[in-house]
Design brief:
4 strands, alpha+beta
Length: 126
């Protein structure tokens, strides 16, 4: 049985691989937080140079909306892969996935709602 930290680390590694394979580059940092039956993934530095240029050169709303549409479509297309990865790591079925990205900060958030809180072993406090 994994610890909470091991679950969070494994999800972070899996999401990092996903970003590398599907988006062409990985984020600068990934933070994963397991809070009961919620799995929150925060990725920083995810925008590619092309995406940053697109957002800067188009009208603000148009660039933002276009980038969000493309990223949302990519996430939705790869949703079964991401859900299977989370289920394999946590041992719990994924009920839903929510996603958003900021074109200003380059931060992306993915939230997985799980059917129940995953079981994990307690770690000893030092």
């Amino acid at each position: 049985m994994k610890s909470q930290g091991e679950i969070e680390a494994a999800v972070g590694e899996g999401i990092g691989r996903f970003e590398q394979e599907y988006m062409g580059r990985g984020p600068k940092s990934i933070h994963v937080h397991l809070i009961g039956d919620l799995l929150v993934v925060r990725l920083q530095g995810v925008l590619t140079a092309a995406e940053q240029h697109l957002v800067k050169t188009l009208q603000p709303e148009k660039g933002r909306d276009l980038l969000k549409q493309v990223r949302t479509h990519l996430i939705e297309t790869a949703r079964p892969v991401m859900e299977a990865m989370v289920q394999d790591i946590t041992g719990v079925k994924v009920l839903s996935l929510h996603h958003d990205i900021s074109t200003i900060t380059g931060e992306e958030v993915v939230l997985f709602t799980l059917a129940e809180s995953p079981l994990f072993r307690e770690t000893k406090k030092k």
